[in-house]
Amino acid sequence: MRRFLLFFGKRLIFVFPQLFGIMLVSFLLLQLIPGDPAVLMAGPFATPKVLETLRIDLGLDKSVAEQFLIYFKNVLRGDLGNSWQTTRPVTEDLLQRFPATLELIILSLTLALSIGVPLGRAGARLKTGFTRKVADYYGLFAGALPDFWLALVFIYIFYSVYSLVPAPLGRLDFMIIPPQIVTGSLLIDSILDLNFQAFKNSVGHLVLPVLTLGLINAGPILKMTQATMERMLEEDFSKYAELCGLPDKVIAKKAFRNSLPSVITIVSVLFGFLIGGAVLVEIVFSWGGAGQYAVNGVLNADFNPVLGFVLISALFSLVIYLIVDLLYFYIDPRTH
Amino acid sequence: MQEKMILSIDELSVLFPNDEMTSAIPVLNKASLNLKKGEIVALVGESGSGKTILSRAIMNLIPSPGYISDGKIIFNELNLLDLQREEMVKIRGRKISLIVSNPKGELDPLETVGQQICNVLIHHLDFSYSQAKKKAISLLRDVRIPDPESRFNAFPHELSGGMAQRVIIAIALACDPELIISDDATSGLDVTVQAQVLDLLDKLVREKGSSLIFITRDLGVAAHFADQIMVIYKGQIVEKNNVQDFFKDPKHPYSNLLLASFSNDPEIKKIWTQKLSLEPEDISIKKCVFCDRCIKAKPKCFHSEPEMITIEGDLQVRCFNPIERAL
User: What pTM value is reported for the model?
Assistant: First the structure.
């Protein structure tokens, strides 16, 4: 237990310098984006005097170092600035948008795991046969399909043609009363609020985007599981288990357990990627997610949302990698 | 008195084709051996002679692309090569078990050693987990691992080589097999640990009356430990005898070469350190496997294969010109 706490503590300490570094680098990178925020905010008809006032307001007249210091001090207070597009504090915007994205990607990755892992396992064990072919082709196609295209195809089939799901306009139909926000996840909050209308409606809205992201991300998970398991089945310990006359199921279970670190790794990488990478699906479904928010910020030289997004998603990534390290520690006794 | 033959290998050949499938190396070349119940037989040969493949062939687990091309393996009057996979799985680890070398590499790194012993007990003998745990701890005690109750929960990487080897022995003995094969079980261990492991194996095997094929490259270990000795060369058993008579009076020219390697004559030593080259051979040419290196070779040896002949008692030789007196 003590070793575990030491390990955990050491990793935790590193989080803070990592966050500072990320803040610094993203701040500096954003300075490279062309476009004058003042001009974009004020519009093409603003006079130079208005622009000048605006610039001073935004603090754009100060040096980069000074601007960064101001920003850093504000972040420590919890102030991520305001978005001039939404006219609201970035913190508020993110508190609304991050849970939307998280709910989406957690459900999608769960679906992806439940497709990718069993197929990958089966693909490793069976060298020939129908299941193996399914696994091979699935891995191929899932990697080749663009997510926004698949999303549009699903919308066409399930909404336009068969009307099986509600319109792809966000997380909830506007006439449904939303539940009280506790966690930010509509599914959890509507259960807590006993608001079953909202629950049913949010499930309907979640089906297609989750299906899209889930089916596509199952591809890399399948490939990784299959490749790692194939390797494990060639290892000495698998051959020895065969020499001891252990049944195939047991040998497969041992090989899979030894493959877990790779599977966990790929899921964590996908998670970190999807926080921003789900943006195309978010746009197609008007999801109001974090990636969408950040992309709009970049397109309109609205710095604060972008910085806020980068910071919070970096924080998330660090948390995920910390959890992953703890999982490795738990699974593999050699890390002790 | 009819002594029970527990294992009888008859003209077993194993081929490893090359990549283009145009030719094949005969790793085992009409190998034959007979093992009586309760015998401890040392199988001695140089690297590449086919010892390990023989052990894997008995288990019918030849690594691909190798395959058994001919021959029979009769275990308790049953030809193992005729069995279906499911039946063979019931024999491995239970009636016939294998002690491997490199124990830490062969154990599952993510399971405790105790659990790995329990696996064979649970799957072969239908033990419940608690029964298996009790038996596993007593097995750990039998192989002289100190503090077996807590060692049960140890992981392979936490053990030394000698301890891990004892665990492998425990796994091999768990189901009271009739035949144990030890494949170079003590290579890579310190000499003192080697001696301990050998004494342990000796004691446990004799207590249970199991038969043991002890594969080694070390003649000294064979002398100390075994009842019978078999010499293998290029995939064939060329001589078999009881240990005392073998060392007094080896009959096959190759056996003499092996023993001569301990002599001080540099010339003989030079021949001995020549590495065995496994070239794809035309196995249709009939000749003695050893004729190319044999100092006693006659023209006949290059044109026909000698049979394995029982000369007297324990002594069997596959040679046209067995040595009458030791060199």
Answer: 0.84
